[in-house]
UniProtKB/TrEMBL annotation:
It is found in: Membrane. Gene3D superfamilies: NAD(P)-binding Rossmann-like Domain. This is TIGR03013 family PEP-CTERM/XrtA system glycosyltransferase. Keywords: Membrane, Transferase, Transmembrane, Transmembrane helix. Residues 284-467 form the Bacterial sugar transferase domain. It is a multi-pass membrane protein. PANTHER family: COLANIC BIOSYNTHESIS UDP-GLUCOSE LIPID CARRIER TRANSFERASE, UNDECAPRENYL-PHOSPHATE N-ACETYLGALACTOSAMINYL 1-PHOSPHATE TRANSFERASE-RELATED. It comes from Paraglaciecola algarum. The chain crosses the membrane at residues 12-30, 50-70, 82-101, 113-133, 286-309.
Amino acid sequence: MSFGSKKEIRRSNILMALEIMIVAYIGYLSSVLVKHFFSTSFVEVALSDFITQVSLFTALVIVAALSVGLYESKLRETYRGIIRRIFVSVAIGYFVVEVLTSSILTGIQISQYYLPIYAALTIVALSIFRYFINRLGILGLGQSKIIVIGAGERASIIEKRMRREVDRFGFELLGFVPIPGDNREEGIQNERLIHVKIDENFRNFITDNDIDEVVIACDQRRGTLPVEILFDCRLRGVGVTDLLDFMERETGQIVVNLMYPSWVIYSNGFSSQNHLRDALDYSINCVLASLVLLLTWPVMLITAAIIFFEDIKVKGASVFYKQERVGLNGKLFKIIKFRSMKLDAEKDGAKWATTNDTRVTKVGNFIRKYRIDELPQLLNVFRGEMSFIGPRPERPQFVEQLIRDIPYYNQRHNVKPGLAGWAQLNYPYGASVEDSMEKLKFDLYYVKHQSLMLDILILIRTVEVVLFGKGR
């Protein structure tokens, strides 16, 4: 654990004590659940053995949590990152207890279901606890003080994109420091400006105000950035973050219009480093597609019948709609969907889809709202042309235009397109080049951060969208 002020250390100690009590209580709760639901395999355990096992597991989880930085006073991590660390901590505790009870502490007899349930409930309980701790700002954890160097056009992206209080719950923004070279006409308008020289006075300002992080957002860097001062800040444990990294972390998108080549070169990259996930990609997608098909085939059958009878008098009317789309590495494939538009929807050529599209049929409105029109794309998943999670595949006619008009647009084709995606959850139908630019910010974030945890998060939120008819 990093050294901080006495106040910060006290907060971390309180957090640790609370989580010790939570893990210990979950141990008791798990034994009650095992006794109730698995009574046939339940073994009465001596109180001393029970206390030994709970104490051992609790101690191991907390020590592992310490080792992965969960009690760092200045931990700056996304909620997803915190869950990952919790999972690792509990996994370590589970593994060590299993080894010890099977080799050294063989006298402890307990149900085979106890430890797995204990570990699973511990992950859930600590994740929920950390969510509310961070979300409500309790103990002042997960929230840091930041200051932004720059008050021009680049810095104004914070003012424009993070106006609401909920957008800033993870940090306290003290203000913006104007420096020479900033475009003040297009810059900060309604935020607090801090007029302090970027010299020794700035170093003292950082110390006096207990600043945790400095965000670099100036319009002109050459000859304006105080490299020595920032270097000293890093040595003192103060974070120094580029504006693009800050926006990526706090908003879940990459600000494409502010990207520059060196940031791309030195960033974490836009290709997956999870080789196990990549190797199992097709198998996992096929299993998921099979499960969804088993659950939804009656809905698909009914939908097909309704679409058929809606246009039964129209000669050549089809239940399905096939269309060419751009897939992985720019390869073309035919996407298949339930037809939700009129037969003559594109008699005048390809058009952008809009929220209240007049070309959509009555049935189409309903099946779009609940994403039922997407279900036939399970066939594309079985063919290996699509994944469950990924950027939505776009039409070649639009892709050609978007590649010309939007920088880095082609990078979204580094992964397979998907049935559901980060952009669909965060932005509505794209009806213009500008909308495509906004969606690309989320697509590139997914391409850069693709992981099993992010896929699970997207799947969970997509289920919520489908169940409550919040389709975009």
